[in-house]
Amino acid sequence: MKKEIPYKIYLSENELPKQWLNLRAFMNKKPAPLLNSDTLKPMTKEELSEIFCGELVQQELDETTPYIDIPEEIRQFYKMYRPAPLVRAYCLEKALKTPAKIYYKFEGNNTSGSHKLNSAIAQAYYAKKQGLKGVTTETGAGQWGTALSMACSYFGLDCKVYMVKCSYQQKPFRREVMRTYGANVTPSPSTTTNIGKKILQDFPGTTGSLGCAISEAVEVALSSEGYRYVLGSVFNQVLLHQSIIGLETKTALDKYSVKPDTIIACAGGGSNLGGLIAPFMAEKLQGKEHYQIIAVEPASCPSLTRGKYAYDFCDTGRVCPLAKMYTLGNSFIPSANHAGGLRYHGMATTLSELYYQGLMEARTVEQTEVFKAAEQFARVEGILPAPESSHAIRVAIDEALKCKETGEEKTILFGLTGTGYFDMLAYENFHDGKMINYLPTDADLQKGFAGIPNINL
Amino acid sequence: MKKEIPYKIYLSENELPKQWLNLRAFMNKKPAPLLNSDTLKPMTKEELSEIFCGELVQQELDETTPYIDIPEEIRQFYKMYRPAPLVRAYCLEKALKTPAKIYYKFEGNNTSGSHKLNSAIAQAYYAKKQGLKGVTTETGAGQWGTALSMACSYFGLDCKVYMVKCSYQQKPFRREVMRTYGANVTPSPSTTTNIGKKILQDFPGTTGSLGCAISEAVEVALSSEGYRYVLGSVFNQVLLHQSIIGLETKTALDKYSVKPDTIIACAGGGSNLGGLIAPFMAEKLQGKEHYQIIAVEPASCPSLTRGKYAYDFCDTGRVCPLAKMYTLGNSFIPSANHAGGLRYHGMATTLSELYYQGLMEARTVEQTEVFKAAEQFARVEGILPAPESSHAIRVAIDEALKCKETGEEKTILFGLTGTGYFDMLAYENFHDGKMINYLPTDADLQKGFAGIPNINL
Predict the structure, then answer these.
(1) B383 and A110 in contact by Cβ < 8 A?
(2) Are B49 and B184 found together in one domain?
(3) pLDDT digits (tens, 9 = 90+) for B255-277
(4) Separation between Cα atoms, residue A137 and residue A151, nearest integer Å
(5) Nearest 10 degrees: Cα torsion A367, A370, A375, A380
(6) Minimal CA separation from B147 to chain A, in Å
(7) Which residue of A has its CA nearest to B373?
(8) What is the pLDDT of residues B169-216, one digit of tens each?
């Protein structure tokens, strides 16, 4: 007999995963390596160590170890806010009158407001272990910056955050949260770096992008003694740490013998997507299970659906190595839509390769539709979702409504990455009917593509 | 052998209380009844039914039933965000180097950001059951208003909120959250009511108070067909619903054979204090256990510590019945401190009587000290607390530091009522050194006392 499924499935603390899952170890054809932009040779451990902490470089380059131990100090911190609940969306199902069964993994019950803390604490831990003074980073929606501030404060590290200007303006209070945790926050592009000055000159009045902010943070890390750069998405190390999302989710579902048919996640740089799908994709790669996996991106920044699969710089300032990924071009600056965390020109190399191999799908959604879903969800499930997370909600609702038509009793799982408490300006625009849907024209895209370096390997 | 205590104690859904606890039933000497201000006779069921829903009136007047069933529909809703975690503050203990064991019941993991949802959903349920069109209410910090908006949206009721003007100005985004749930929000005092107009005339430029906002909301409820007034604190019905906080806490502690020595709660109108202490105070009243119970109020609004125990109006406009309580006088308008939820001139009658009988203590704290505690707590426990909640944190830390001096291994329990995501302006003031400690002078208090009606019974 099947156990009755509660509204929220909480694992106990001793069920908290002891290892992260390294998805690349399960791939026959591995993602393409990062390249040194001068030599076009794969980045070596030594080269990467100038930017990143030593142990993180090891994780970045490790393609073969399937499971990597989570240090005890990190697990202690995880216990402050994890295991995160897996929620059965009974109320949403009822409101939609769908035969589908909907589950979501909720990562918003911590002050960073999102899943970002999972990797922030790991990166801060390794930085501390290496004896560093501090770290630099970029933040889009502000969630990664907040997460890193919390993590640095916990380990007594200095934290310098470059925040994408449009988010900095839209979310004045995010800065105060970071200050509460002792961080130093600068709107990007700024005049505090050479690359920032150049970007401001080339694109006067720009509201910034993750690509710009990364360049500034990397420049500061490289030029400051005892500092390294840490980042909240795109890189393999981040996907590794975020695998805790999927691992907990799978453990919780397994307890109730539930198998998802469709797994949905929003995708900016890919940290949440890569984390949520990790153990499911591993099974899929081993041919054990079939899952439909859907990445959801904003129509205004459609790297998977309209980008090119090519080697490109991870940042606008071209300070970072080259990565083979679906990209809109490193100079592409997306419109100032309200999902700051999804405004990145590329996509994690691992996820790009999986998408290229046809192991997952991608869809775009427009922001007014996203906010309709957000509001509907908030009213029935009682959680005010972040705009980023609401991309996944939109597609989950759409899939559940399809089930209503077909009568299929699909099991839908999606990632609810965080809360929208600092996004009320976006909600206000939506309520006032002032929200615009930005759609890059083909000409816009061509302009971005023109900036992709011409590398054939 | 004692079980190891996890960081967070989560009850399972079937451990969710099935009944609320009615503290008055355990009191030999009951709190004084509400009086009709014209006749000075106890308010009858009929009189109260003009303002409140029928079943809520019954709960308001019931002094004898110790446990009252929670309707199944309300329990369903509770499952969306309850049981709430009881957290063992291992990280705070370590940071303080105290031998004390600190626990807190965290009520902030829901979109209202606080415990207020516990009573909001109950009151909306009874309003719906009675076939009403909608409800009116006041809100201070905005948490009650948000909670009620969520509850009304769930049951399809109209919701009109009068929000204390200083909070409305300090928390512009609170309004958007309420709008997301379909509520109508008006800053109080306003020109939409007679009493609002009068208050604006008598106190030009006032930033309002809970007392004013209550008057406006009651006036609108009385003059609108199919509407009743609902409220977030002070009244017995609210304390009844909030007993779920204490009941869950006690069940969780009992599981690990833990008995608190000291129980600490912030106190504005008393909803959280009354809820958290309910089962503990019941034991104390029965002589079964001794607990030290401490109510914490802001120095700027010290109803228990500097108020009078007397019959007074619950609202500035004198539309509400008379209640015997510790009061600063219904015309007392506290300074614009940052704990909007604690700016009420009186205290719940039940709690006032318990305090009068010497069954609990009260302390005042100043807001800069409160924010110091808030920041310290946020940094080690990873939760950004609301200013209201931080009053309890302040005293919990003070008590834990005393234990450090004496070596006592006290068990301290406090209520963490909510999160401060909408209070970043207050944090900003604190960070910038611009926060002022308001202390009413004796003359200020005398002015307030002068407005207390002269009733000797």
Answers:
(1) yes
(2) yes
(3) 999 999 999 999 999 999 999 99
(4) 13
(5) 180
(6) 10
(7) A180
(8) 877 789 899 999 999 999 999 999 999 999 999 999 998 887 789 899
Q: Is residue B4 part of a domain?
A: no
What rounded mean pLDDT belongs to chain A?
94
> A320, A23, A340: which is closest to A187 by C-alpha?
A340
Half-sphere exposure of B346 (CA within 13 A, CB side): 31
Radius of gyration, alpha carbons of chain B: 20
- Contact of B244 with B208, CB cutoff 8 Å: no
Q: Are residues A109 and A156 in the same domain?
A: no
Residue at B359 is within a domain: yes
CA count, 13 A, side-chain hemisphere, A266: 33
Considering only CB atoms, B177 lies closest to which of A111, A117, A424, namely A424
Cα atoms found within 13 Å of the Cα of residue A39, Cβ hemisphere only: 8
CA distance B371 to A179: 13
Burial of B159-180, coded b for 16+ CB within 10 Å and e otherwise, reads: bbbbbbbbbbebbebbbbbbbb
Residue B407 lies in a domain: yes
Give the structural domain span for A398: 82-113+237-449
Residue in A176, A177, A393 to test binding to B, most B beta-carbons within 10 Å = A176
CATH number of the CATH domain containing A418: 3.40.50.1100
Q: Do B427 and A179 touch (CB under 8 A)?
A: yes
- Could you report the per-residue pLDDT of A172-227, keeping only the tens digit for each? 789 899 999 999 999 999 999 999 999 999 999 998 887 789 899 999 999 999 99
Q: At residue A456, does pLDDT exceed 80?
A: no
As given in the structure block, the two tokens for residue A122 are: 């790991």
